[in-house]
Amino acid sequence: MILGMWLGAAVSVDVLVAQNFSAIDRFLAAPGTPGATAQVRQTGTKSLRFLLRRNAAEENASIFEVWEWTQIGIATGLFLFILFGERPPGSVLIAIPGMMLILLLQRFLLTPHVASLGREVDEIPAQALFNNPIVSRFWAFHGFYAGGEILKLIVGMGVASRLMIRRDSRATDSNTRDSNPRDLNPREIPERAAPERSSARRGSSRRKSRHTADQS
To answer: Residue 216 and residue 58: Cα distance in Å, rounded?
Structure first.
């Protein structure tokens, strides 16, 4: 459940961040009120687009920072929970630290570079963006971040599938043991047979008492 909520929230954050930029052009095309439309025309679409994109970029950087720290806490708690559980799968104990490594790279390497390079890119005139090394570096770090996010989601879905298969397998084994007494642990057989023997002894005692009473 925890892992499923984590992965679902990760997808939601990615969609939210993407919408922050696409909402800018939608707002400029249709501000919504006559007053806002007048302000857009007075200030100029170009100037407003620059300010709104800068605001969206800073907001996204803040969202990523908070969300990455939150994910690090979730991953640590989930790993400890599985580690001290009953016979944790070896593949899961490798996969979750792998997801943690991706998170640490995002938090301390990729996100800071994407944020700082994004500020520099916004200051570059439109005619100078083509073949600009700063723009190339920005998209390289952005691509690494997106690739890490996709890899993290794939590994997370693999971990979830492995845990579900393990849970279903344990439930099947438990039902099989309950339906087949020969597969029970020898220590469990006397415990389950004890109530039956006790009931048999009580029945034998009652029959002896009735036989004695009939003789007398």
So the answer is: 100
Neighbouring residues of 45: CB distance < 8 A, sequence distance ≥ 6: 28
Q: Are 31 and 37 in contact (CB under 8 A)?
A: yes
The rounded distance, in Å, linking the Cα atoms of 175 and 192 is 16
pTM: 0.76
Amino acid at 71: Q
Q: How far apart are CA 18 and CA 139, in angstroms?
A: 15
d(CA 60, CA 56) in angstroms, rounded, equals 6
In terms of Cα–Cα distance, which of 144, 94, 96, 95 is closest to 117? 144
Query: Among the residues of the chain, which ranges form H helices?
Result: 2-29, 34-43, 45-83, 90-105, 111-122, 133-179, 188-215
Q: Would you state the structure tokens that stand for residue 60, as one six-digit string? A: 């996204």
The radius of gyration computed from the CA coordinates of the chain, to the nearest angstrom, equals 32
Q: How far is CA 151 from CA 95, 129, 199, in A?
A: 11, 30, 61
Residue scoring higher pLDDT (99 or 182):
99
40 close to 31: Cβ distance less than 8 angstroms: yes
Ramachandran category for residue 32: left, alpha or beta (phi over 0 → left; psi -120 to 50 → alpha) = left
